[in-house]
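# step 3/5: fold
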Amino acid sequence: MASLLSATDALAQGLAQDDVDTLPERLGTIQAILEDYRKSPFFAAEEKLLRVLLKHMATQSATAERLRRYPPVWDVLRMLFPLILLKPLAKALADRRFVRTLRQTLKEIAAPQQEADQTNGADSDVEMADAPALESPASPSPRPSPSPRKRKRPDAASFDLAIQRQAGGCLQTAEAVFHAVRVLLELCDGRSREEPLHIWVGAEHIKSMFYTSATESMALLVPWLSVCRLAVDRPKPKPLSEQSSWLSTFAALWELHMHLSGDISEVATHLFSPAARLLGRLTGVPHQTPLGIDKAVVDQWARDLRRFMARHFVLEARAAFQNRGGQEVLEVQTALSVSSPSAQITFPVLFGLVCRSRPESAGTAPSKDYETWVQAVFDAILHAAKDTSRDNGLVAVRTITEMAAERGTTLSASSLRTVCKDYAIRKNGIDWNLLLAIVKLNPDVFLVSDPGKQLLEQVLEAARDPGRLDAQDSDRAARFVVLLADGYAQARDLSGFVKLWLKHLAPDTPKSNLRPVWAQEALADEVAKLIQTSLTPTQLVAILDWLSSQTQPTESMARLHILEAVSRGISLDDFVDAANMKIFEGAFLEEFSKKELPAVSARRWMVASRAMARGTSDEARHVWSRIKSDIKRVLRKFPIEREDTFAAFKCCAEVWLAKFPGSAHEDEAATLICSFAERLENAGEPGELEPSDGRSSVSRWTYVSWILSDAPRLMRLLIARDSPIVNVILSLLDVSKGADPARVERALAVSRLLLEREPSVSNRRLMDLLIDRVLSMIDPSKSTRSGPSTKIAIQFLLDIPAEIPNRGQREAAMKSLVAHLTGDEGKGGAIGAEDCESVLSLMTKLMARPTYYEGMCFSHLASLGRWIAKIHERSNRRSHEELAMDDVSKIHDRFRLLFQLAVLSIRQMTSGGPDERERPYLQGAMSLLQSPCKDPDIVPRIVLLRAFISVVRDSPAAKKMNGSDGLDLASLQDRLLRLASPAVKSGNRNGDGLLTLLVALEALCDLDGEDVRLALSDAVPSLLEASDSLLKSRAHAGWEVRTFLATHFLDRLARPLEIKMAVAAPDATGDGQRSGPIKSAKALDKPALLRYVDAVVRSADEDRKLGYLEELLREDGDNQDALGCLLVSYRLIQHLKGSRLPEDIKQFGLAQAHYALCDRLEKATSPATFLLTSKAIHLLIDQNPACMTQFNIGRTLSCVLTVSARASTPALVAESPDVYPSLCRLVAMLIRRYRKRLEDSFHILVDTLQGLLRLLLSRPHEEAATAGPATATTQEETWARDARHFSRLLTLICEPAVGSGSTSAVQGSGGPRPAALDSEKDRARRFAGQFMYYVLMAYVRLQVEEHGAAAAVPHAVRAALEPGMFAIMDVTTRGGKGIMSAAMDASTRAVLREMYKRYERFGKWTGV
């Protein structure tokens, strides 16, 4: 205290002498003292310091302004407030006019000066020679300082008044001022009469300083909002401490003012305009712009400001409007008048707040009073928009109308008609965006009255000429017409729209195209969807008769288009019986002409196709007799690539597929289809039918894809008639060399279509034809084979089910593949290195079933190995300096496929008794494996030796040959050991050396462990060095080396789990210990790491495993190692299943591990670390209940609560959809496993549930509106899924299963025996009823607080939460419901009342 008192005296002396240059240093000394200061009963020095500062800040001098603007001054005040008792603190603040000083400070910092207006004048701080930034730009050299001073910190606040007046200085001051005010208000918050009198009186005295009228409060609040706007308008975000609480403190100040009936007028006059402009910037109204604050601060400010405006302006204005009988919105008019200069922002913000103030939070329909209120506000906005500039008014009205359309707000047709007339239809063009919003809101604007119909005529006339519309406006006009059709349907006048459609669809001349806005497929689909719901069969017949009467040439084209849409939309029997043939007759009123536009003719054939499919036998005969001659002419003479030809083909196919067996038209249609298939076969190469003019997309690929995907039965019929359609398909599969990639993709698509359809796969004849043709494509003896065709054939054989090819086909395929890979000295022929994996996978698939191809011998496997080795050699040749780990991994995977293929091949030769086929094969294998090999062949030789030994060792038939016929298994094992040992002992760990090492280690694991230890004991140090080097370079091959060492030389690993397990990206440079660095595509290979851990702990006892776990959890690794350590820890916990508590409480056990994991969960910053830690805690709780003490249960709950309340958790939830469910799963596991033990911690459980609920409801969902419909839907689905997780927690507590809370009926001999009918389930429900209503209260309050005045969360989320909330209401007693009602205010009580009504209707438990 003495040091603080002396520092205070020095500061007072300096201020009295006007020694401003030393003030920063003296304030810094005081700050340093206060940082380590502890509160004591004696506070004279603190109070004196407070009075000194406030005294010199209250004057009008330049020094006082510098003090008010200097952030450390306010920091000192903030640190002093908690050190002084509230009553003397209140007296000191009142004596020194604290509120007036605060008001003056806010006024000054709310109006920053521009940098161009500022110079370093006489008020500048003492300048430093090493700080030229404070020089005047005009001065040639810095002014010398009389005495050198300590360098300022780069981020320290400046005492230069000119710098303080800049925007950055004002924000630094605001940061300190707002923080100090918040601390002062928090000291007074929650004080009650039960506390000591001086505390309660002091708190009330401090509050009374802000107890002023609304007019006087504006002197504090308006500058406060201006400073917030200043922070938002900065060009780049610069975080400030406690910035997220600025607007919540602002709202707290308003709550302290003198509440009077006229407050709403003051808010409308002074606060609405700055608040609406700020809220518009935060929420992106009218469009998103860069902000100068962080995303988290934006979300928090938007919630706080929206809540403030809803409570203190919108709700008050609505109440006043209703009290006046719904006649005037005076307060809204005042706010609109004041804010009209920025109407494009403030008007939409006001309307958005009004729309969010819907009183019904339980999802019921809006009340009439609410609709009247919204309509009155909308009309007031339209009236006020007339007094603004034309551009601002247009932007405001458009934004408001789009907002209303998006939210489904009900607005009158007369108001929207005014909007359409004044803003949408202008002399210089049509605002299609505004028209779209209007027709979404209320199509009656254009349909009901004569003025509306006149407006519609103007709009449709503007859309009549497509040349006057750009691409975007044309798309909007098309969407407008689609919505107009829906409006006509709602008005029960779809017939009227059909007539309008015909009028505007018809072109001006017969040779012109249909008008594009009306000829769109979306409109035809919409009308088709509306036909059966909006018309009766009688009405449909009437409109069809009217259409048939429109016979002008231009009308005929439009009529065909409309009739096709109508035929598409009927499916019910009543409509089909009434309209099917009428549609057909209307489509064929005129004779078919080859001069018709292809698009029009195509519609004609579509109508005929549907008429044939739906009609009776007589109707089908009539249809065929009418179209037979025309369809013959089309299919025989029209070009194949025309759109109408394709439609005629589908129509003829429908005739054939129609269920009228034995009819004459069936054979005629079949003949036409088969002859057309011959045209497709003879049309030339596949590329000759590709569209070239851009007007048609029909090709042979189109016909084949339609048959395979939409008409698979047609394929069976064609094959039964020996149609050449199979040849057409095969010609698409057979791609010539040098073909473009698009053609190759089409061929692969045909292959996939063939194998995706069950009728095609089950057609044995088709499959045999295709497989035989595909086999010819990979036959090396064929001169026409090409690389693309071979690739397609291999992919087809890979995709086909394994049981489809017969043995002969499998053997033919193997023979061809082996010839490819073993011929030409293993160059692979038409098979490239990129197809190596596909070929090996296919051979493995074929050899998995009995396959003994011609000339099969073991040397083929050796040739395959040499081919893979040559691919590796070419890969190495590409880069001598830098070897990619991806290439090594890829080649290693290929040798693994070779191993699988060799195992399958050898197993076939050893599965039965050795005869003249198997015996030569095995003898040849022995001869080859025992022969010497060159260095490039070492790797394939090791692979083949390993495969041969692993199969022969376990084969009974081969054991009969062991020792005879040259089959000596022991010599082969010795041979493998002699080949692999040099590769392990070699110091080469790059490229070939690394590949050889990995293959050798895999092979040695199959040999006797003692022999391996004897042979390689001296290689352990080099292997350790190699593994460390590989792991350091983030190469997962290091884990494979480590696994080998852990398997055979675990005693040589001192601390096997004390290694770096980094997951970060590798460095770009090498470590200097290798000839070339190895780049890794995967920083952490999870399976390899887990295999290593399993090898380490395989023979370890429980104490050793716990020791490993303790080492991992007590060493805080950096971010690079955290994920790997957690992964190993999780694996160790899996191995410790069923562990018990240690006998010595000081010994490390799973209870301590649980504590350490909870600590890590609270600090986790990445989703991967968070989820893995949560999973480990869940596993501990689940599989080790004996180790979980009561403290562990409480620690888990407090951990979940802490994480839920953490500021960074919402960002984690937004980044990963699994974060929130993982927290719910932890609590659910506690409820299921430890229900009885939770009764002592139920208050913590309730707090945890409230924290989870707050985290669930606090996520901002306004972003969904700007993220696009797909993203918005995904976000809402994720939100609803999380709500279901939380609701399940509530039902677990309130509706326990019968066995979840049961206890043994056998008590101790001295204790009472419970009643036989005592129900633990009922007891658990009664116990939950004493506490769970607190969660329900939190849910009701959060709906109001987090999302505005009773503006509920999305319906899907509420629906997901309802079962849990209803379960709480089931168990809550009458007294608990009374407590809830008494503890709520009017708004929350209204929300609860609506919820209770739904509970009584839908959720109340009846006991049935």
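# step 4/5: annotate
The longest strand covers residues 425-426.
# step 5/5: archive (pending)
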